[in-house]
# Entry
Amino acid sequence: MSTNHTLKVSLGERSYPITIGRNLLRGGFGLADFVAGPDCLVVSNETVAPLYLDALLANLAGKQCTSVALADGEVHKTVATMHGILDKLVETGANRDTTLIALGGGVVGDITGFAAACYMRGVAFIQVPTTLLAQVDSSVGGKTGVNHPGGKNLIGAFHQPQIVLIDTDTLSTLPERELKAGLAEVIKYGAICDLGFFGWLEQNMQLLLDKDPDALAFAIRRSCELKAEIVAADERESGRRAILNFGHTFGHAIENCLGYGEWLHGEAVAAGMLMAAELSAMDREDINRLSALLNAAGLPTAPPPLRAEQWMQTMGLDKKVQAKQLRFVLLRELGDAYITAEYDATRLDQLTGAAA
Ligand code: NAD
Ligand code: GLY
# Structure
């Protein structure tokens, strides 16, 4: 892709651009224009900082920047890590006009956004996502937060960024397993709301796995367009936004029960999407298509062996639960998702082993 693309997340005074392109960090885009005050704190981690921090700091010339590198991994997505960022903000005398910049994957983005939501009751932040998963999903939409030992993302806030800057060149260093995990969320968009995109993914999966720049750019752009549209219509998930959680009720339970980081988020979501499809009253042919596409992306299509009590206990803390009643995102058919508390309980028991 030779030119940049800019999309908009339309949220009134909280609207912001998503700019997607190549070589953006190394001079192709002036991020400093989006830092309103004189200073910023760049939050990255010990893996990503050595790769891209210098480029980002050079891009921010003229701003007073400090940086912090977090320990890497889902296991560090905790209140304690978030507190470390708050300590750094206090230590450096950060004010209400300080901007936080998240440079990394979804873990760095979620923690940094949450720190920004909390510090002085809310300061500005910018997302510079460097994994496919973060570029197509977590950096967009303003969900920020950390895990609790009892459940995924239980502690957090809605806090929208000033801009999402997606430099697709950063994917050149992304390990294959992480690329595949990101593809799970890309497949999710096709499955929940865009059958045409699902078909495109069926045709182009190998190009994506080969990191073909044009194919990646298209998949990222389409994913962001779909997410921006859903978020603009339902910022705080009072309704339709919940479809973005297709597969996540099962997926979060897998991540929590195995121990954070054992299965990657995208891997858990992949297995979770197949479980949700199996719980849906939909044609076997559609379920097989979803399974085949996840397989083609090298993703798991079956959950690890958890006990029925483990499933039920963790799913009971799902954020979609209402009046103690589990709710699931199900598919009427591929490309058409909805949220419901009405599902086949016997089928759920079979899927979670409770019927054994
Ligand atoms: P991650 O942040 O752990 O990143 C994956 C790994 O890739 C890490 O080891 C990281 O250091 C490394 N990495 C990142 N960029 C790299 C690069 N360019 N080159 C080499 N290595 C790189 O995981 P993730 O998959 O990006 O994000 C998962 C997290 O996102 C989960 O915690 C999940 O809950 C969250 N999430 C949030 C939302 C949301 O709406 N806020 C949506 C989906 C997922
Ligand atoms: N990943 C789910 C959401 O942003 O709503």
Q: What stands out?
A: The pocket of nicotinamide-adenine-dinucleotide (ligand 1) is lined by residues 45, 47-48, 51, 72, 74, 77, 104-108, 110, 130-131, 133-134, 137-138, 141, 143, 153, 170, 173-174, 178, 181, 265-266 (CB under 6 Å). The longest strand covers residues 151-158.
